[in-house]
């Protein structure tokens, strides 16, 4: 039976920034609370992701057409279909599930941090105490048991919607929403977190930007893929050459042996 590919819509128009999703993420994943302090840069607090905080609510404010705006953006791993972090991992510690989740296996992670370099959204966080890297799991454990991700279940305004990825894209496109994530580029493919808006679609237009770029979502996201993938391909090639060499040597050795036997009989 084919596995359904899922996604989560973040509706910027209906999010009220209550942080219920942030708390639910902490509770479900058993993550320690952060000791926070006053953030002079704004209301985002904790101000950034950490090994113990896998999602945050970002509070973005500014002025557009003379009018102030204040919107809220849920920030976490976007779970890319091409998952460059998984391609960068030299020990296959990052699994890409058919449901859409990209999950770091802590029992395999060696703390090399190649995944951090490969991520164009600046998401994975390294913990020097454990020598591991951590990030959102899309609540794959809940999904595989028929439950919604914890953040979605906690949202009081239905600004988060979980469902089959294709159906979500078609639903919001048909309703006139702008969508970020249904096809980004060849580096990340599409993302399983989808950001949508009708209200903020012109945000940043006067500065020549798309609304999602104002939110920190690049139009052409790219990270730095270490030479691991190339190394794997070269390794496969060398292994094939070694195998061919072994076969050639065996053929040569057998021919020489037969020649030697023939010479002995003739003598």
UniProtKB/TrEMBL annotation:
Residues 6-36, 68-99, 100-129 form the 4Fe-4S ferredoxin-type domain. [4Fe-4S] cluster 3 binds at residues 77, 80, 85, 119. The chain crosses the membrane at residues 234-255. Binds 4 [4Fe-4S] clusters per subunit. GO terms for biological process: cellular respiration; formate oxidation. [4Fe-4S] cluster 4 binds at residues 89, 109, 112, 115. One of its GO terms (molecular function) is metal ion binding. Keywords: 4Fe-4S, Iron, Iron-sulfur, Membrane, Metal-binding, Repeat, Transmembrane, Transmembrane helix. [4Fe-4S] cluster 2 binds at residues 25, 136, 139, 151. Its cofactor is [4Fe-4S] cluster. [4Fe-4S] cluster 1 binds at residues 15, 18, 21, 155. It is found in: Cell envelope. InterPro entries: 4Fe4S_Fe-S-bd, 4Fe4S_Fe_S_CS, FDH_Electron_Transfer_Unit, Formate_DH_Fe-S_su. This is 4Fe-4S ferredoxin-type domain-containing protein. It comes from Pyrodictium occultum.
């Amino acid at each position: 039976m084919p596995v359904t590919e899922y996604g989560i819509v973040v509706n910027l128009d209906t999010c009220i920034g209550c942080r219920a999703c942030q708390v639910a993420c902490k509770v479900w994943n058993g993550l320690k609370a952060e000791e926070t302090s006053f953030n002079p840069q704004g209301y985002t607090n904790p101000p950034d992701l950490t090994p113990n905080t896998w999602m945050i609510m970002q509070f973005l404010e500014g002025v557009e057409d003379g009018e102030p705006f204040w919107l809220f953006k849920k920030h976490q791993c976007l779970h890319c279909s091409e998952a460059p972090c998984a391609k960068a991992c030299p020990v296959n510690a990052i699994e890409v599930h058919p449901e859409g989740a990209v999950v770091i296996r802590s029992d395999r992670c060696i703390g090399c941090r190649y995944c951090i370099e490969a991520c164009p959204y600046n998401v994975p966080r390294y913990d020097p105490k454990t020598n591991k890297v951590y990030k959102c799991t899309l609540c794959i454990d809940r999904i595989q048991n028929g439950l919604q991700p914890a953040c979605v279940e906690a949202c009081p305004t239905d600004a988060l919607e979980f469902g089959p990825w294709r159906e979500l894209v078609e639903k919001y496109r048909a309703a006139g929403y702008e969508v970020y994530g249904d096809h980004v580029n060849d580096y990340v493919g599409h993302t399983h977190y989808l950001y949508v808006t009708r209200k903020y679609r012109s945000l940043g237009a006067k500065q020549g930007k798309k609304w999602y770029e104002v939110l920190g979502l690049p139009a052409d996201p790219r990270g730095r893929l270490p030479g691991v993938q190339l190394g794997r391909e070269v390794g496969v090639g060398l292994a094939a050459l070694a195998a061919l060499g072994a076969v050639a040597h065996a053929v040569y050795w057998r021919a020489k042996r037969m020649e030697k036997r023939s010479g002995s009989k003739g003598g």
